[in-house]
């Protein structure tokens, strides 16, 4: 549970970040990190369309640069876009200047006020500066771990069923590491969430 649903002390590290939305509304917020790529994003968009679901795609700037048609397609279908740095770099491994420049480089392509740090970590000065730039920092209430080699598709589905709750920000990935699992279980996950009475919304 420490991984799938972040412990309270982790939420204290970034107190103004968004970890969960309104717990009184029967709504979940689907998010997809690391794309867009042609091997994964179009399939995910089609599944979302089947359920009338809106989501938020936290894009790597370099991928959006290489596949601008996918960036535009995500927006055309009514989904939100967030910044996930230009090269998917971790804030703890890079100097603050290089990290912030990488975020700005992605912003020039993505033009969004939503930001999610890769791996969920930033230095304190990076976090403060990102917020000063006007970004809303979005973390998650449930990470499905669809990227993990230790989990199969059914494990990912069980994470959704076990940890989803009112206001959950649910993290999937439109990446090569995840797409085989998502092809197996994403429609089932959305159907289960709908059967539980959840509405799907994009972040704003």
Describe the structure.
This protein has 204 residues and is α/β, with parallel strands linked by helices. It has one domain (8-200): TIM Barrel, CATH 3.20.20.370. It has eight helices and eight strands; from the N terminus they run αβαβααβαβαββαβαβ. It has helices spanning 8-13, 41-50, 61-66, 68-76, 96-110, 124-132, 153-163, 179-195, and strands at residues 27-33, 55-59, 80-83, 114-115, 136-137, 142-143, 169-173, 199-200. The strands form two sheets. Strands 1, 2, 3, 6, 7 and 8 form a six-stranded parallel beta sheet that branches. The chain has a two-stranded parallel sheet with strand order 4-5. Helix 2 runs parallel beside helix 8. The protein is globular, with a radius of gyration of 16 Å. The mean pLDDT is 96.
**CATH H-level name... which superfamily?**
Glycoside hydrolase/deacetylase
- Provide the succession of SSEs: HEHEHHEHEHEEHEHE
| Gyration radius over CA | 16 Å
> How big a fraction of the residues is strand?
5-15%
Question: What general outline do the C-alpha atoms trace?
Answer: globular
What's the architecture in CATH terms?
A: Alpha-Beta Barrel
Average pLDDT: 96
CATH topology annotation: TIM Barrel
Flag low-confidence runs. Answer: none
**Top-tier CATH class:** Alpha Beta
Largest sheet: 6 strands, parallel
Q: What is the domain total for the residues?
A: 1
State the end-to-end CA separation.
Answer: 27 Å
Key descriptive features of the protein:
41% helix; globular; 6-stranded parallel beta sheet; 14% strand; TIM Barrel
